[in-house]
Amino acid sequence: LPPGFANHGVDLNDYKDTYAELVALVADAHVGKLLSGFREEFLTARVPRVEGQMAQLAMLDGLTMDSRVGALPHVVFGIHDVPDTEQVCLVAQGAEIILPAHARDAMEYCITTTDFRLGDMGGDLDDGGKMVLAKRFVREGLMRVL
After folding, report:
1. What 3-state class would DSSP assign to 85?
2. Contacts of 103 (CB under 8 A, 6+ apart)
C-alpha cells in the first residue's frame, strides 16, 4: 500500500495504474515456489512460546518408557527428506531436527499425537531411540511430559 493511503482526502483512484502493474507482476510469479519460501521462513523463524518449559526440562531425568508424553497443540511443522542422504528433517518453531530416515514415522507420531505412553511411540525406533527423540522434542518445545 502506498504511504498515506489511509489519510483523509486521498484519492485512491490515483493508485489504480500502480496497483494494476503490481497485480501483473504477481500474476507471473511461480506460486508454488513463492509459497514454499514463505512456509520455510515461517517454520524456521518462529520462536516457540512454551509455558512451563523450565519445569518440563526438569522432568526429563525421570522419564521412563511408561511416562505419558504428547505433542503440544497447534505446532506448525514440516517434514522433508534431506536431499542426497538417508536423513529426514523436521522443521518447527525455529528448530531443524535432522535424524536418520528410519525415524520419520516416529517423528511424525510425536509431533501429531497429543497423549501417549512413551513406550507406545509409533515408528520403528528401539526404546533408546524413543527416549532420545522424546527428550529432544521436549527440549525443543514440541512435546511435553504429561
Report:
1. coil
2. 88, 123, 125, 129, 133
pLDDT digits (tens, 9 = 90+) for 23-76: 887 777 777 777 777 777 766 666 555 566 767 777 888 999 999 999 988 888
pLDDT digits (tens, 9 = 90+) for 78-116: 899 999 999 999 988 778 899 999 999 999 999 999 999
Please state the pTM of the whole predicted model: 0.66
Residue with grid cell 523450565, as numbered in its chain:
54
Distance CA 132, CA 62 (A): 13
CA angle 99, 103, 108 (to 5 degrees): 105
Give the position of cell 514440541.
142
- Closest C-alpha among 22, 62, 43, 89 to residue 145: 62
